[in-house]
Amino acid sequence: MASMPVSFGPYFFICRESRAEGKRYTGKLYRKYWNEARIKAGETIDVYRGTKTSRASQMVNEDDMSLHDVQIAGDWASFESVKCYAKANMAKKRAVLERKVIRIDEKRKEK
Does the pTM exceed 0.85? Predict the structure, then answer.
């Protein structure tokens, strides 16, 4: 405990190789690390598409949003763009397929 700093600086995450004020991360460093990880993983996706795809898919799979809600939340002008970025995973597809369907001619039970 004695070796811990008395107070934190203005940035929670810092980077030793940063030349920016406060050793903060910058967009340039972010893209550098993204590209290093992308190449190591054998991926070709750039940082913009990667983060946009990840967040859109997260909203569908984890936040249970519809594609229309994702369009509103992500401020996409085109619904076709949303369909390109937001991908449902297998668990989400399975959950959708297992939903109970009530036929139109069936009566609903009153509570």
Answer: no
